[in-house]
Design brief:
Layout lengths: L1 E8 L9 H14 L3 E3 L4 E4 L2 H16 L5 E8 L7 H14 L2
Antiparallel strand pairs: 1-3, 1-4, 2-3
Helix pairs in contact: 1-2
Family: Belongs to the UPF0045 family.
Pfam family, one: Thiamine_BP
Protein name: MTH1187 family thiamine-binding protein
Length: 100
């Protein structure tokens, strides 16, 4: 499965930013060893249900350490028996675009 998620603390730091807290969540994902990528809106992580959801929970916990309230947006593509879809889906799209 692939999960795309975005985490943000409800409270900002002294400068009004949230990047330090979000960085802690991304650090959790990267240290998990699961395939992942981060873009300007979401972090995508791929793996089995239990391992992906454990990473999401740990990322939420990391942000919660900096804020008493946390916002989480999560979207999942659940496709049993598939792996490598984090890049595979994009590769198939690019091939389809080239075919026009």
């Amino acid at each position: 499965m692939i999960v795309a998620f975005s985490i943000s603390p409800a409270t900002a730091d002294d400068t009004g930013g949230v990047s330090a807290a979000v960085a802690e969540a991304v650090r959790v994902v990267r240290e998990s060893g699961l395939p992942s990528e981060t873009n300007s809106m979401f972090t995508n992580v791929e793996g089995e249900w239990d391992e992906v959801m454990a990473v999401v929970k740990a990322a939420v916990d990391a942000v919660a350490a900096a804020s008493p309230r946390v916002s989480l947006v999560l979207k999942a593509d659940i496709r049993p028996g598939r792996s490598g879809e984090l890049t595979g889906k994009v590769e198939r799209l690019e091939r389809a675009l080239e075919g026009r």
